[in-house]
Each structure stands twice: as structure tokens, then as C-alpha cells.
């Protein structure tokens, strides 16, 4: 077990990030009594906690994933008193409903970023900088090599690839994480090219988000009795684990693509054996991380899950007081899928 100083607002334990003043944890990875959750991805929202607190926009996905849980909700920007701590949730821009969590105790303010991106994607609530004394930040893509291209340009590349495949009589199969990434990609697609088909895991998430009022284009779920010949020129969105599987063979001649920030690295593209890689990430790139940190005005930075050592060294060289904090975030079955 490791922990912070006794007067810290938040400490780091073997169960997760802990606030003694409010007796709660943030995104804990072991079962606890009270868990404040930044977003619904599996490495941050885990089963087994007695009580959950999250944004009202995050709760439906969590309940879909975790089943019958005791969950209380707050709106973005709403302050909640828990013990001697004041907490509030602020948009993280990572996926619909995702939040940064602000914790204030006796005038000292800490913010836990969760996962975030600073560039609007047209679907998620836009990232909101939160001023604080200490900022616990992810750094999944904490290297200068990671700098995302304009997403309008990526959308053109994606639709051109789809249109070329459709013209050649090929199906387009696109691997993307079922929660957040898949829906963001749908918003980037031009439905005039052809029909959009979805794997069951993706469509189940679509149903939850549509039920909340998030606007998504029309899609058709791939079921055992679906005849692929009825959907010429289709683009299929599926979890990366399904691409290249027996499930995907039903589409016949096809071209495969993956959408992830990791697609910026040639080695990853080769290992995935994809025909195309599209650099689309729901995490901040290097400039985005720098912008977020500067915007907080924080005196202390705690770097978690990512290129933590390199990132913290860079921040210290720029005059920040930065430390590395080991966590169990970023633990999806395949991080290339999620990023």
C-alpha cells in the first residue's frame, strides 16, 4: 500500500484514490463502500462497490454494464457535500457523461481527471478546465509524437475509404471500442455512402445513448438471420476483438480498419494487420495534455496510466512539481481497442 501525506485532500491506496475527509474513493479498483465514478469504461467503473455516485449522463451506461447497482447521480457542476468534503463533477470530453471530479477540503482543491480529451467531438460534453491546487491527470499519450490531426480531415479519409470499398464491392469493417469510440465514429460517417451495420455490443450501447437523447445516425444490428446481401456497400462497426473473427467472415470480401490513437504508431498498425488505420482517440494528445494542465493552474501534478515517467520528468523540467502515481487504470483487455 502507498499513500500521500496526512494533510492531502486525496491519498493513493491499494484500493484506489481515497478522500479521508469524505470517506469515499474515486474510480476504485477494489470493492469499497462508496465510489465516485468518472465514466463508464470497465477500468474505471468496476463491479462490487456498495454505493456509486456519478453524473446523471453516465448512470445509464453504468447500469447497463454493471446491472443492479445502487447509484446516485449529480448534474455537471452541481456541488455535493460528503462529510467534510465538497465534490462536483465537470465535463471531461472523453465520452458521453464522462467527468473530472473536483474535491475541496478546507479550501484546498484537487481534481481527478479520469480520462479526457480537450477537443470537442460533437457527441460528448466538451472538456471544461477546472482550477485547482493539485491535478491528478492521465497521460495515455504523454509523448510529443502524439499529436492528433484535424478530425474533419480524418472523417474525409474514413468516408473515402468506405466509398472506395463500396464501389469495389467490398464490405468495410471498422474496429472500435463499443462505448464512446464507436458512437463518435458514427457521427463522422456520411450515411449517403451506404448502410451502417453494428455488432450487438455496439448496438446495445447505441440503444442506451439514444434513450438519453444523444443523436446517432440510423444503424442496423447484425443478427444471425441478417442477410448481408441486402446491405451492399455497408460499413460494419464492431469491437476490435470481432474483426478477423468467425463473426466477421460472414461479410465475405472486405477491407478492415481500426480507429485508435495508437494507429499513429506504425508498429501497432502492423501488429493489427489492418488495411487501414485511422488516428481517432478519445484521450488528449500531447498538446491537449499540456493545455489541460496549464489551464488548471495546479501547483502539483500527479501523472497516472500512460507514459508516466517520461511525462513527469518533462513537467518537472518545465517548473511543475510532478510525481508518478501507479494505478490500475488503462487495464482494458486491449488498450489499443479503448484508446
What does this structure look like?
The chain has two domains: 192 residues, Ribonuclease Z/Hydroxyacylglutathione hydrolase-like (Metallo-beta-lactamase, Chain A, 4-Layer Sandwich); 128 residues, Rossmann fold (3-Layer(aba) Sandwich). The protein is built from nine helices and 19 strands. It is globular and about 65 Å long. Helix content is 24%, strand content 24%. It is α/β, with parallel strands linked by helices and 339 residues long.
Question: What is the gist of this entry?
Answer:
The chain is 24% helix and 24% strand. The chain is an alpha/beta fold.
Could you give a short account of the major beta sheet?
A: 7 strands, mixed
Helix content: 10-25%
The percentage of residues in β strands lies in 15-25%
CATH topology of the largest domain, anyone?
Metallo-beta-lactamase, Chain A
Q: Report the count of strand segments.
A: 19
Q: Would you list the SSEs in sequence order as H and E? A: EEEEEHEEEEEEHEHEHEEHEHEHEHEH
Number of helices: 9
Shape: globular
The CATH superfamily label of the largest domain reads: Ribonuclease Z/Hydroxyacylglutathione hydrolase-like
Q: What is the CATH-assigned architecture of the largest domain?
A: 4-Layer Sandwich
Radius of gyration: 20 Å
Strand order of the largest sheet: 7-8-9-10-11-18-19
Structure classification: alpha/beta
Rounded to the nearest angstrom, the distance between the terminal CA atoms is 28 Å
What's the structural domain tally? 2
Low-confidence stretches: 1-6, 331-337
Class of the largest domain in CATH? Answer: Alpha Beta
Query: Averaged pLDDT, please?
Result: 93
